[in-house]
Amino acid sequence: MDAVTKTTQQVQVSVLRTHLPLALFVFGIVLVAVVLAIPGLRDVVFTIAESGPLGAFVTGILYTVGFTAPLATAMVVDAAHTTSPWVLALLGGLGAMLYDLLIFAFIRRTTTISFFEKVRERFLGRPAITWTLAGIGAFVIASPLPDELGSGLLGLSNLPQKYFVPLSFLLNGLGILTIALLIR
After folding, report:
1. Which residue pairs, CB below 8 angstroms and at least 24 apart, start in 44-47?
2. 53: Cβ–Cβ under 8 A, 6 or more apart, which residues?
3. Could you tell me which residues come within 8 angstroms of residue 129 by beta carbon, excluding any fewer than 6 positions away?
């Protein structure tokens, strides 16, 4: 393989890594439009959202996944009319935290054998960068944006798992609670 072919492949992989999360999020918005436009699908989604504690837990899991975050936000909006915002925040935050923990653990395991190890060695010895990554990650987790990025940034920031778990629960719960209270 010559140098040009190798460079072209590296650029293609880089573009894919850069644009895939955005493409999945946009796909999620399109998915919400399609689901809301089809009465049968809309009824199924909102039945799940309004099914009490289990619905809040499932909504929380969907709230963290890139292409289902917009759908989960619509589910929170719907469920806020029939379910206590505090129940939504508590159980949705729990579901979201469990998914975030999977991502956090995955990033931690892959950092020893991948690109992230190089990033860690070069940049993360500096406290300002570590705290900036942690702050950006926390903001992303609290928002209805996909949590993969936020969990990954917190995983890179050397935050111990014992602090990540309650932080993820709190941030996701606050994000869900904010949406639910704004609707009421």
Report:
1. 45/71, 45/74, 45/75, 46/75, 46/78
2. 87, 91
3. 123
Run of H or E residues at 148: helix 147-156
CA distance 147 to 141: 5
Domain count, the chain: 1
C-alpha distance from residue 76 to each of 69, 103, 109 (Å):
10, 22, 32
Q: What is the pLDDT of residues 93-142, one digit of tens each?
A: 999 999 888 877 777 666 555 555 666 666 666 777 778 888 888 898 88
The answer to whether 168 and 97 are in contact (CB under 8 A) is yes
For residue 97, which of 131, 60, 126, 65 has the smallest C-alpha distance?
Answer: 60
Which residue segment(s) compose the domain that 132 sits in?
Answer: 3-183
What is the reported pTM? 0.75
